[in-house]
Amino acid sequence: MSSDSLTKISIDDLKPGMYVDSIAEQKGNLQVASRGKVTSRAIVGQLRRRGVLAVIIDPSKQFEPAPEEVEEEAPVESAPAPEPEPEKKKQKLKFDQEIAVANKLHKKGKSIQKQLLNSVAKGLPTDISVPEEFSRNLVGSIDRNPNALLCLTKIREKDDYLLEHSLNVAILLANFAQYIGLEEEIVQELALSGFLHDIGKIKIPDKILHKPGRLTDQEMNIMRDHVVYGIEALEEMQIPERMIRTVGEHHERLDGYGYPEGKRDDEVSFFGRMISIVDVYDALTADRVYKAGMPSQKALQILLKDTPDKYDRDLVQKFIKCIGIYPVGSLVKLSDETIAMVVKHNEDAPLKPVVKVFYNTKGKHYMAPEDVDLSRGTKVTVEKAVLASDYKIDFNTFFEEKIAI
Q1: Domains of the chain by range and CATH?
Q2: For 12-39, how does the pLDDT look when each residue is reduced to its tens digit (9 = 90+)?
Q3: Is the pTM here over 0.70, yes or no?
Q4: Cα-based distances in Å from 231 to 222, 246, 366, 369, 376
């Protein structure tokens, strides 16, 4: 067959039944197998995720794909209507009863995350049952008392960002899913998706991953490849396709300026919209080696400002209600010159949460932790949200020694 018959087409025009002779245009740095049959839409999706923009096809080798190989594109998920669950008693515990268990679970999550990253970095097989079981336990803790694990998303170590971020996204995403009424199975699926969403970052060079300043365009292109690396790792683990799609969309934006595929509007799934909101929120509020995290209120304002262009407005508004004006685990200064940690929202009085008072700013000393419901019988009010660094408080140590016990 003469090379004159070969035809260049866009990746958007590639269909099952075509034969790819070579890659014509590609972005990114991933090596892509350049020749073979396109037996399903999944293959087209894989090529697109790997940065392929155009291919050369050989029309003379066109074939009729088997019916079972032609897969329909997955429809955009809409929020499933919450169905009434069978009557079952879920054990509910007070914050102080669950916090020690949640603290151990949080540490175990970081350990599992570290093992997963090491396995992916070395190309070793991964036992997906371990993170699956962890995700079930995580949702179990949220069922007993969601505020315990939410509180732990605020306890950060600057050198553990990669480990803590994925764990925090799992916790926040599971809470968000429960808040909007998704069924238990979906909550667990989203918890696992959040836990695994950044697994591809282990293949990004440290000098780029931990660079303190702004990335160059070339460095940003390399950084963006972490999504594709992550998808490849999850495909090898044989993770369900819907979860892979959720993970693959955590950097997509509704205006089409996200990555890796530049999806826009309804091309971004419902779960993809959820994880993108949670991912950005945790990243903005996280402490890094080179910068302090911003207060939750500012991060939520940024999310709201970027709707509906980048993020789903309805979901952002629901996420803000889920997180609250003063998120659980955040610190606030009270009108009596004390510092307290928020431990519970009061939905009927969002400006008056339940707090755990632990520091006196006048005397500059710690106090025995005491729970105070600001909505009941007290004239004390929240003056403002603060950071531990504002008062040179070693809150992590105090939390370990006096609260998470």
Answers
A1: 3-65 (no CATH), 95-323 (1.10.3210.10), 331-403 (no CATH)
A2: 888 888 888 888 888 755 555 567 788 8
A3: yes
A4: 15, 10, 46, 44, 49
